[in-house]
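Format notes (please read before filing issues)

Several people have asked whether sequences and structure tokens are stored in separate files. They are not. Every record keeps both together, in the order shown below: the sequence lines, then the token lines. Line labels are part of the format and must not be stripped during preprocessing.
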Amino acid sequence: MPRTDLAPICPRIQIAGIIDREEADLLVRLGVDSLGFPLRLAVHAPDISDADAAHVIASLPPHVAAVVITYLTNPDEIIALCDALGTARVQLHADVPPAVPAALRALRPDLRIIKSLVIPHGCDDALPNSIVERINAFAPHVDAFLTDSTDPTTGATGATGRIHDWRLDRAIVEASPIPVIIAGGLNPTNVRAAIRAARPAAVDAHTGVEGPDGRKRADLVKTFIREAVSGFSDIA
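Then the structure lines:
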């Protein structure tokens, strides 16, 4: 069953795509609750090596969560990756059956699991039955859902910088018995509106707080945090 101690699995603000220790330290200083490390990806190249990610994760203070974001589908390989990196939090981004998180839960009851729900490109304001079915199938085996956007030109289902209809996020929040984190093109200028529209448990950003060089920019992260906090205050 999903856990009821939601704070560790649902930080209010997660930033993904950590490049190095310097970037991680910056985000921690600015007040980010959770750092995401995309590895074993289907389209994008990893932002960091396994060894460097493990080093960064070992340096994080206890109140900052480290989440492995992966397209791996084999439970044993997922657990091995988490163990190698030194974290017990994983975001499953591949199109896996519910049996995968169920197996992870059986093998490692301490593992906190987030399952992505990718919004199809061109989806209108009606939530597809397929997503409702996935919510019902996965909810007993995971701790939270994360919504994201797809890029039909590249096939990417994350870190696309694309926004989807937040009414769909709201529908997912209302349909889900467990917390929902929203992502997909969030940036300092739209995160407050997204929170007000969807009423999620948390938000996640990647490319929306980066400069042209692909590194997180302190000014963008500061503004993102300020606007996100205001958004959560609006819906409190």
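For reference, the curators noted about this record: The domain at 9-235 is CATH 3.20.20.70 (TIM Barrel). The first helix runs from residue 6 to 9.
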